[in-house]
Design goal:
The structure is a single chain. This protein is α+β, with helices and mostly antiparallel strands. The chain is about 30% helix and about 30% strand. It starts with a helix and ends with a strand. The structure holds guanosine-5',3'-tetraphosphate. Guanosine-5',3'-tetraphosphate (G4P) binds next to helix 3.
Amino acid sequence: MSDTAATTESPSRSPLSEEVARRRTFAIISHPDAGKTTLTEKLLLFGGAINLAGQVKAKGERRNTRSDWMKIERERGISVVTSVMTFEFNDLVFNLLDTPGHEDFSEDTYRTLTAVDSAVMVIDAAKGIEARTRKLFEVCRLRDIPIITFINKMDRESRDTFELLDEIEKTLALDTTPMTWPVGRGRDFLGTYDVVSGGVRLLEGGGAKTGATEQIDIGDLGKRNPNLDVAEVRDELALASEACKPFELAAFREGHLTPVYFGSALRNFGVGDLLEGLGKFAPAPRAQDSDLRKVEAAEPRMSAFVFKIQANMDPNHRDRIAFARLCSGKLSRGMKAKLVRTGKNMSLSSPQFFFAQDRSVADEAFAGDVVGIPNHGTLRIGDTLTEGEDLTFVGVPSFAPEIVRRVRLTDAMKAKKLKEALQQMSEEGVVQVFRPRDGAPALVGVVGPLQLDVLKARLDAEYSLPVEFEISEFSLARWISSDDRKKLDAFVAANNSGIADDVDGDPVFMAKNEFYLGYTRERAEGITFSNVKDVK
Ligand code: G4P
């Protein structure tokens, strides 16, 4: 009897599923300058993960001192690396996956978005939806990642609230539900009205930090600030409650609706509401697609995939940290896991947990968490680790490069070393490498030119390989495949001078320009040309 009861209850009550249900793994998407760094800092403050504001920005500088190649970051004031920050709030564990701010490193950002279950979209209240926000939103939409919106900088002059909501709805085709509503704007921004409780949270009151609301009549707010147009506020609130869709959890989870919060990251206002919203509405770790089946987060056997490699925490040892998102089960320090690509087991002797800035040794991590696995080149982007099952997670993408260059080595004697170095760099996702089948020197492909600067600096610093990049006859790369092996072989044979192998040895068609690509494609019956590839 009791056995049956235990069995029925265990799927939802097991310690593992309880741990999984506590996780919220998310990223922040925004256009540069909208306030992502400031918001990150304040979120961490809420979680008690750091006690000093300003640490997130300082982080870049501290990291830069760790290695030479990151000089690029320091000189240009940009952040190249992606990091993970874990903090607790209200008994929930939040994993915030940071993404590089500069769009030249957007490949890194896209891959990071494969490892989250939800995203916070930060919008500058004066600017609305900007180009990069829109692009990152599209990536989220491809993966049905639910989005929570934070309209930031309400303490400054901002656009009309309805206009902002309308812009989100129209440009992103996403329904909006304001969860809070701004009272006053710019210099006269007093706080927010909480749509659910009907209370008011004042910028200059205790509610700014605690998130607590007070029941204050709008008329009384007018007495506090004579500039506030009380009638207008009342009209807006009445119109908002009439015109805006009520919040619907299912629509949000499916990516059709976004709850909207208003605030000021700089003034630490509205951040608590946002965090509460994330805790309440954002999904716990979702099931992940693999080549064999969907893997549920609360399954007992551990599985994970690598979405990012970060090298050179210490330039003297070519150490790499592979960032792996746990998809199911529990990872314990010292456990063995199978690297499915090679079929070999590896010991996870010192996985690292990312509690705020400190890399600390974790004893255990659960589905939804991200761990750093130190290795010397064993792990590459897209790798799957399991407790034995031969499944491979799908969906970590590689994008066709926007820029293709030929690598010219100044010292021809070092060709072999260059080959090895380029292989490593492509496994880390620094650049993509294409090896022409006709034996010509390697081509590298990137999304943004700064990636080339990073490659050059790293080849020089780590491998003593000074290189130059030359314009190549090719400017486009497309992965080619066919259901019919013979057709693919025939195409490759007929176009040999334009065929290269990527890092996995998969064939890529290199084209001079769009016209030539289109011309070839039209005549290549049965061949698929793709500008995205799932990393295997
Ligand atoms: P990003 O990571 O999205 O690029 O943005 P970041 O947080 O660095 O913020 C960009 C600028 O906007 C910063 O000012 C920051 O202080 C300011 N900011 C962020 N949130 C708010 C807000 O809620 N209200 C107001 N008024 N300003 C905000 P900066 O002058 O460029 O940098 P700093 O010298 O102040 O650090």
